[in-house]
Amino acid sequence: MQVFDYEDIQLIPSKCIVKSRSECDTTVEFGNRRFKLPVVPANMATIIDEKLAIWLAQNGYFYIMHRFDEAGRIPFIQKMNELGLYTSISVGVKDKEYEFVEEMAKLGLKPDYVTIDIAHGHSDQVIDMIHHLKKHLPETFVIAGNVATPEAVRELENAGADATKVGVGPGKVCITKIKTGFGTGGWQLAALARCAKAARKPIIADGGVRTHGDIAKSIRFGATMIMIGYLFAGHEESPGKTIPVGEQLFKEYFGSASEYQKGAKVNVEGKKILIPHKGKIQDTLKEMEQDLQSSISYAGGKDLEAITKVDYVIVKNSIFNGDTI
Ligand SMILES: NC(=O)C1=CN([C@@H]2O[C@H](COP(=O)(O)OP(=O)(O)OC[C@H]3O[C@@H](n4cnc5c(N)ncnc54)[C@H](OP(=O)(O)O)[C@@H]3O)[C@@H](O)[C@H]2O)C=CC1
Ligand SMILES: Nc1nc2c(ncn2[C@@H]2O[C@H](COP(=O)(O)O)[C@@H](O)[C@H]2O)c(=O)[nH]1
After folding, report:
1. Which of 70, 84, 174, 186 is 20 to 30 A off residue 263, Cα-Cα?
2. Topology of domain 9-314, per CATH?
3. Where in the sequence numbering do the catalytic residues fall?
4. E strand or H helix at 180
5. From residue 175, how far is each of 41, 219, 304 by CA, in Å?
6. What is the predicted ipTM?
7. Where are the domains of the chain?
8. pLDDT at residue 319 is higher than 90
9. Type and span of the H or E element at 28
10. pLDDT tens digits for range 151-202
């Protein structure tokens, strides 16, 4: 099998057909909505909270609320409904999550998007939850993950998932690849390409994006949407705690399977890092949009579709994708 990761690939430019990058359209349709960018901040406690979710929804971006404030999820949906905004939440697969889905249905709450968020998503536990969601909330767009193989994508799609999320172990605060020896760490982009060949529905590429150029590369290899933690961590609006170190301000970014999220040292597969304070998230989103417009122009087109067809070369291979342990 030919393997490669983000830093091993360069996309090859095609003749430009626009006079200005501002002509290039970065919007994407996902579910029955159109969003400004094909990116979504990771559904993690140090990346997204209610305030940021409201801002993202109000400003035309996709968001997925994390699942770690269990009791806060129903009030969150109610608040978004009151504000006339779309709703996008996460669930796990444990028994009480089945009751939670039934409770939403009983209350007449119909989230627009529900993401099943577990580490090893190729499992009957996820398939059962897809069935449960489709039975009780038939209009909801169900995203299921995370998976690493074409077989898993097919199986979750066949179970009723409307999109699958690909990426096991490539994340910045992930230690799955080190602790278990498994995953797509070091070859996330190639894993995405394999999965995309098998997929009949949209794929979210999840984890391992380190630069804005990696967004274009994800689209080239089959992603409709790209989930990103690292590049969105450390902003003024990021929920991670602010920590002063000497003169400089940092913000916490920790894994959902870290002891900091779990409150216990059990099955730990995530770590915590400190990220230098980055300023406002809207500035990063603007820069991402401009960089992606530029990617589209290099692809020789006017929209994201153009990127899906460009040629590429493999320039080298590096298992850690620039990360240290
Ligand atoms: N994308 C990625 O690479 C990874 C992401 N994460 C994130 O960490 C969070 C916690 O994930 P997770 O532990 O799955 O969630 P949960 O703690 O909610 O576990 C979900 C269920 O799956 C079981 N489970 C977890 N891992 C495995 C496994 N390797 N094999 C078999 N069963 C398993 C758990 O049981 P039990 O705990 O008893 O085994 C539990 O029943 C999520 O937000 C997830 O996205 C974590 C690791 C990798
Ligand atoms: N193995 C682990 N993966 C995790 C954990 N918490 C989150 N994640 C995954 O990482 C991505 C974000 O990756 P990034 O490279 O953009 O920072 C996130 O969406 C999850 O899929 C964890 O504790 N362990």
Report:
1. 186
2. TIM Barrel (3.20.20)
3. 174
4. helix 176-180
5. 20, 25, 32
6. 0.94
7. 9-314
8. no
9. strand 28-30
10. 999 999 999 999 999 999 999 999 999 999 999 999 999 999 999 999 999 9
**Do 186 and 204 meet the contact criterion of CB atoms below 8 Å apart?**
no
Q: Which of 231, 245, 226 is nearest to 163 (CA)?
A: 226
Among 32, 108, 111, 106, CA closest to 67: 111
3-state helix, strand, coil in the chain (%, to 5): 35, 20, 45
146 within ligand 1 shell (Cβ under 6 A): yes
- Ligand 2 atom nearest to 168, measured from its CA: 1
Of 30, 313, 10, give the one whose Cα is nearest residue 162: 30
Both tokens of 76, joined, read: 């969150």
Q: pLDDT tens for residues 246-257?
A: 999 999 999 999
Q: In what order do the strands lie in the sheet with 248-254?
A: 242-245, 248-254, 272-276
Question: Cα separation of 201 and 164, whole Å?
Answer: 8
Mutate to test the pocket of ligand 1, among 94, 118, 188 (most ligand atoms within 8 A of CB): 118
